[in-house]
Amino acid sequence: MENIRRDRILQRLKNKEVIDDWKVDYRIRKSALSDIYKYKPRENIKEESLNRIRIAPYHINDDEISVMSQYDLEQLKFAPKPGISSTPRPRPRSADSVLKLEMARRNEDKKLIDDVNKQVEFLNLKIENPCLPLSVSDAEADLVNALQLQLRLRNRQNVITQLKMSTHPTAFLM
Q1: Is 142 exposed, middle or buried (0-12, 13-18, 19+ CB in 10 A)?
Q2: What is the chain's alpha carbon radius of gyration, rounded to the nearest angstrom?
Q3: Rounded distance, CA 150 to CA 62, Å?
Q4: Residue 48 to residues 26, 38, 55: CA-CA distances in angstroms?
Q5: With contact defined as beta carbons under 8 Å apart, do 45 and 37 qualify?
């Protein structure tokens, strides 16, 4: 246990020494390079940099390494930006089509209410008249009809709730 701890400490010290040596070497090279580039013309520095990039071990195209001129950069800055185009708004519906849709909805609602009322009347007649023979299949059929009507009502209620939520004045406030 003591040996492991001592080895860790020694390795940490060696790592620190290597990093410090690397920093010193880097600073020396950087200052030497800055002294060299201090007296070179800008075009030569640019050309050397491009040559180093071309020789680099990664794949690039010549178009990707070209440096933009100031004029091209300004043109790119002030060029019109492509907007995020969404789907175009639907055309407003005509009064006739709106009326037809509303009438169709009202007819569906009326049919649904009529179906529910028929089912309720039918079940009330069965309850009020105990003389009728009752069978399990009749009860299952009544249950299936009731569940189907309940599902239709729930679907219609969801639509109405969504409409209320989307058209209510405070629907978009949070």
Answers
A1: middle
A2: 41
A3: 69
A4: 20, 14, 11
A5: yes
d(CA 143, CA 135): 13
* Contacting residues for 105 by C-beta, under 8 A, at least 6 apart: none
Q: What is the mean pLDDT of residues 80-105?
A: 80
- Say what the pTM is: 0.36
Mention every residue, 6+ apart, whose C-beta is less than 8 A from residue 97.
none
pLDDT at 174: 45
pLDDT tens-digit map of 22-75: 999 999 988 888 888 888 888 888 888 888 777 766 666 666 667 778 888 888
3-state helix, strand, coil in the chain (%, to 5): 75, 0, 25
Three-state SS letters, the chain: CHHHHHHHHHHHHHHHHHHHHHHHHHHHHHHHHHHHHHCCCHHHHHHHHHHHHHHCCCCCCHHHHCCCCHHHHHHHHHCCCCCCCCCCCCCCCCHHHHHHHHHHHHHHHHHHHHHHHHHHHHHHHHHHCCCCCCCHHHHHHHHHHHHHHHHHHHHHHHHHHHHHHHHCCCCCCC
